[in-house]
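Any chance you'd type out a single protein's sequence alongside its tokenized fold?
>
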Amino acid sequence: MAFWQTKRLEEMTREEWESLCDGCGLCCLIRFEDEDTGEVVPTKVHCKLFDGGLCRCTDYENRIEHVPDCIQLTPWNIETLKWMPLSCAYRRLDEGRGLADWHPLVSGDPETVHTAGVSIRGLTVSEETLAEPEDALDFEASDWVEERGV
């Protein structure tokens, strides 16, 4: 059996933990929280460190230095981040659902997350292209993100 089928999230090595990321990029989207309802509203705008073509962070190891509010997933905070996509491997495993067939660890191919239509590769704009951070609201994407498994 594969490690993700036999280990709890908190038992995984750093390498195993990091390999769970399917590379969809959904967690790198800029989100706003409605102050009245607490609802988290996603946009089609990605973090300045995210490469929209590769669907990866350009400075993953140092991202917190450059983007202090970047989400740092851990086995201890994943269940509190309810805005994470339903398709997210970390969330799926935390909820006891296993990995999706298109997940690279299952398929053996890092492209399946893209060919399955789950990723945001090539579909977003960088926050660096906006005049003001609030302009991201013009790219509100609740329905679009839901289609990708949120």
